[in-house]
Fold this protein.
Amino acid sequence: MSSLLIQNGTVVTATDHYQADVYIEGEKVRAIGAGLDYSAERTIDAHGCYLFPGGIDAHTHMELPFMGTFASDTFESGTLAGLHGGTTTIIDFAIQTQGDSLTAAVDEWHRKADGHAVGDYAFHCAVTDFNERTKAEIPTIINERGINSFKTFMAYKGALMVDDRQMFQLMQELVEHGGILTAHAENGDMIDQMIEQFLQEGKTEPRYHVLSRPAICEAEAAGRAIDLAYQSGSALYIVHTTCEEALAKVKQASLRNQKVHVETCVQYLLLDESLYFQDGFEGAKVVMSPPLRKAKDQAALWAGINQNLVHVVATDHCPFCMDQKAMGKDSFAKIPNGAPGIENRMELMYSEGVEKGRLSLNKFVDVNATAPAKIFGLFPRKGTIAVGSDADIVIFDPEVEHTMSAETHHMNVDYSAYEGWQVKGKCRSTILRGRVVVDEGNADVEEGYGEYLPRGKFNAKY
Ligand code: URP
Ligand code: ZN
Ligand code: ZN
């Protein structure tokens, strides 16, 4: 069995940080302590570095078929980029095609990922067509396919959106069988009306993307999802939350002791809506839904993390190259929605969060790894550094400064949303299940090393 000893690093978990050695045997952490005396096949000196649990990106879309094209990262390229940036596990969305079954979607996502991903992966299942047949599949998806989280889209009518009755029935099923509902909260009907009006007025540029999807659309839908969850008793996780108004709905729900799990994404903490108002077609790079918001929303999200109102920071990694974005040259409504980020999340959150004093080290670990592992049933195998857990560890040098750029990133996309950003702190090495898969920027991992992570029923205790 392989063995690895990491010496002199500072172990950081969601609750502690302390200097210790970590001894790894095979795929698991076997011992943690000061001055461990093990002879290992390989020893790494991590002096001056943090040892973070491998990042978990709870919201990605590899090879997603969407808006007439496909997200440009495969499971191989996207998870490899993740490893470079300290993310060792993703949870991707297996999205039902309307008219088809959930089983077909899960099978299709396994075809894309199995034997190809280099990082570990689990799936959420997105229910776009809830009917008697779909309903009957829920227990099988949870108990036999290892998926306990189900997404509904409250926007994108005609392709992905379900109505309230479907969503409510799905929630009832999840209560019965042990699942959690994850909601894309935007009022699709309001948005579609505004899109149509702008286009009729000849307003076609990327800036109309944000103007047609104001915060009120998100807040209204978030409030509705929260109410439906309250009435059904369902666990609820709101994906890619962007704004103060949506957070206000979550706060309000807490007054009746309703627990709502909230995800935001790194771009909503760091980028703002002014990017849509740049000259020409530049704004298309950040066309995503919901759109980027204002500085006051960023402030509310950072505060929300520290108030334990926002639990998870993901990416919604859904990259499209500029020739794909160009499908919307003549209409903002045809720009494929999504942006890259999986490789940047951990380093940005460290540099802009910890280094700038907005986040503690423990909160950094919590939102990037521990909380998503707990909510989605991967803990304690994933999401922490502990004896018996998978040895997924990022050796992170907090002193190294570098510049983000499409020239140097590993994501299969020809622009960076953070082009030219100077960041402090870098993933020096990434270890996945005991194996050093990235070392000083060099990857050493073969296609298919990533493992599928089946999960049990949703456990409200976490
Ligand atoms: O713009 C986005 N978010 N694209 C991916 C699909 C989704 O809604 O998550
Ligand atoms: Zn979404
Ligand atoms: Zn998404």
Q: What stands out?
A: The first helix runs from residue 75 to 84. The two ends are 33 Å apart (CA to CA). The mean pLDDT is 98. Residues 184, 239-240 surround zinc ion (ligand 2) (CB under 6 Å).
